[in-house]
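ok new one. same drill as before - structure tokens go in, u give me an amino acid for every spot. 219 of them this time. try not to just spam alanines like last time pls lmao
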């Protein structure tokens, strides 16, 4: 008699679009040993590719055994990430959810383990992760002054973030969420943790309303 399948404790649902280079870094930041105090069998990653012109390459699709890649062609994808997020949640299995609306982000090494603990302490809570922007200033200002992907890649290489994710703060600037201090209410977050039961009770993500893409950790 076969043993029952062990359900993960946490399901990460990540929505991406046309970001083949960035999503590799994002997924790396979601995996141990970069992520601390968590093992790969405790969680799953559902990566929803929402309307990209072509699928991610096979090595990225199979970068980790706990990752499931779902490709939605341009013809079946919705401009809003909400529908893809709801579909990803429906495919997931864990009682705890991490919802990342925009996949072009990096998280720091303690995000998964600490947020899981917080949801255990406060089951009815929604836990947010606040964001910073990579670069010397708030990103729209940096871009206006010449900041681009090449400069960003140099900065990431310089701090060797994959060895210590907290060094990302050395090359980041406060965003609208963080410039007034982390004790102030935030209007948005790109990385939310919530129990599945509460997410379902809230009616999931509204697909008929426009959604703002938000930041977490560093962009």
């Amino acid at each position: 008699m076969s043993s029952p399948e062990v359900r993960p404790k946490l399901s990460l649902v990540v929505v991406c679009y046309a970001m083949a280079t960035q999503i590799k870094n994002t997924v790396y930041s979601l995996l141990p040993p970069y992520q601390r105090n968590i093992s790969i069998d405790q969680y799953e990653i559902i990566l929803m590719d929402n309307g990209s012109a072509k699928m991610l390459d096979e090595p990225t699709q199979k970068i980790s055994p706990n990752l499931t890649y779902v490709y939605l062609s341009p013809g079946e994808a919705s401009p809003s990430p909400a529908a893809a997020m709801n579909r990803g949640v429906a495919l997931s299995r864990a009682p705890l959810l991490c919802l990342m609306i925009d996949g072009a982000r990096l998280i720091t090494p303690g995000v998964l383990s600490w947020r899981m603990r917080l949801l255990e302490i406060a089951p009815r809570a929604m836990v947010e992760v606040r964001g910073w922007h990579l670069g010397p200033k708030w990103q729209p200002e940096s871009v206006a002054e010449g900041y681009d992907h090449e400069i960003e890649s140099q900065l990431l290489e310089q701090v060797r973030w994959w060895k210590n994710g907290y060094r990302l703060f050395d090359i980041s600037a406060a965003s609208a969420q963080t410039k007034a201090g982390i004790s102030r209410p935030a209007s948005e977050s790109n990385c939310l943790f919530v129990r599945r039961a509460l997410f379902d009770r809230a009616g999931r993500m509204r697909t008929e309303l426009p959604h703002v893409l938000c930041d977490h950790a560093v962009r």
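The longest strand covers residues 43-50. and btw The helical segments are 20-29, 58-61, 82-91, 111-121, 139-144, 149-159, 196-201.
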